[in-house]
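Lab notebook, design round three. We kept the backbone fixed and only want residue identities now. Task for the bench partner: fill in a sequence for the structure below.
Input structure tokens:
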């Protein structure tokens, strides 16, 4: 169910209800799963005639009016500026919404930019410059603001890479993603974003983002987000020495950086292969590989990591994707680093958050950890289907 395989899950629930006909919990889950299967079938049926429609191209910005009473941040000549971002952050802290015209404009511009970027982005960091890598944010806007308080706002002098899972679970995902996308447009060569497994339709449908966008804006905007996410790069390589991806390494021994570059990413993640494993895989302490506990991707050992690094002439990898009590974990003899930047994940995990800083010369990772900060009284998963409120991926 948590992987979005609703029809298979429905068969399992149906079996359970037959074996345990008086189990009310089983009946409830069967009923809810059946509703989701029927809803998706209906959505597909009405979408048949719209298959080739590009949402971004169908948006008419000129038809959207900025009301006189709107006092929020405004794009200047249709462009993101430093003033716009500063105003946007303060606007969000006051729990207000960006006008839909500007929101749509940002999404259209980000999609246009990302669609011209490679699947594997090469980043050059000068020897004497700092570079920051952040892990999962998961809609925790106020913790994102704390990162910027501790480490400075992104700029040409203070570049960042955010390593996927910007949204879902946390109920301020809209605020997070528009802040990050605004920085991407303002500093395209100094602000980077990798796709995570939660930048996908099934995850967004289950874990809150699609519901949040529909509540705060429209279902059409939620569809546009899906288009934009399809174009996010899958990995970044820093100074030809450090590879950064959201998930991890591969079920095959012969994958090269060129193989990653050649992935056609403009789609929903498949259930296997390079794209899937970049988004979903996890490290394990024992050598070799194991089936993933998540049911998708694989688990890879230190020998797999060392072999991959040697083959591709890399120093180490950075990945995210897993909650860590200290906000980070150094594994595989220092060659596989996990960074997770959402402290007290889902308001329940009591973990620290962390980010990594390094300079361009030695690329030595330095870790900064921090606790969660207070946020408005909107619980995580507020916009998710109640069925999924206890499922973690």
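Proposed sequence:
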């Amino acid at each position: 169910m948590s992987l979005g395989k609703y029809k298979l899950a429905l068969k399992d629930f149906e079996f359970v209800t037959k074996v345990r006909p008086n189990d009310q919990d089983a009946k409830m889950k069967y009923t809810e799963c059946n509703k989701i299967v029927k809803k998706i079938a209906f959505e597909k049926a009405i979408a048949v005639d719209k298959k080739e429609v590009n949402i971004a191209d169908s948006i008419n910005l000129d038809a959207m009016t900025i009301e006189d009473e709107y006092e929020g941040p405004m794009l200047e000549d249709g462009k993101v500026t430093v003033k716009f971002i500063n105003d946007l952050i303060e606007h969000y802290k006051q729990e207000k919404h960006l006008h839909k015209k500007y929101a749509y404009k940002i999404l259209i511009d980000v999609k246009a930019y990302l669609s011209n970027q490679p699947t594997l982005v090469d980043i050059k960091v000068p020897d004497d410059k700092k570079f920051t890598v952040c892990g999962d944010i998961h809609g925790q806007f106020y913790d994102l603001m704390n990162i910027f308080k501790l480490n400075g706002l992104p700029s040409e002098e203070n570049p960042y890479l955010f390593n996927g899972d910007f949204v879902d679970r946390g109920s301020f995902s809209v605020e997070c993603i528009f802040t990050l996308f605004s920085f991407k447009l303002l500093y395209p060569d100094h602000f980077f974003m990798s796709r995570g497994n939660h930048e996908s339709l099934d995850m967004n449908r289950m874990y809150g983002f699609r519901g949040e966008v529909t509540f705060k804006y429209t279902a059409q905007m939620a569809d546009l987000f899906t288009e934009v996410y399809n174009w996010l790069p899958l990995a970044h390589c820093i100074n030809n020495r450090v590879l950064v991806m959201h998930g991890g390494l591969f079920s095959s021994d012969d994958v090269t950086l060129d193989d990653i570059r050649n992935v056609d990413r403009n789609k929903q993640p498949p259930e296997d292969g390079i794209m899937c494993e970049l988004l979903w895989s996890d490290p394990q302490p024992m050598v070799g590989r194991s089936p993933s506990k998540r049911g998708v991707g694989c688990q890879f050992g230190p020998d797999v990591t060392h072999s991959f690094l040697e083959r591709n002439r890399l120093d180490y990898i950075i990945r995210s994707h897993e909650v860590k009590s200290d906000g980070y974990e150094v594994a595989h003899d220092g060659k596989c680093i996990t960074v997770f930047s959402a402290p007290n994940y889902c308001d329940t995990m009591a973990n620290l958050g962390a980010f990594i800083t390094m300079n361009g010369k030695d690329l030595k990772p330095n870790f900064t950890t921090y606790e969660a900060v207070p946020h408005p009284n909107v619980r995580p998963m507020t916009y998710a289907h109640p069925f999924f409120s206890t499922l973690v991926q």
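Keep this in mind before ordering anything: The chain has two domains: 6-46, 82-390.
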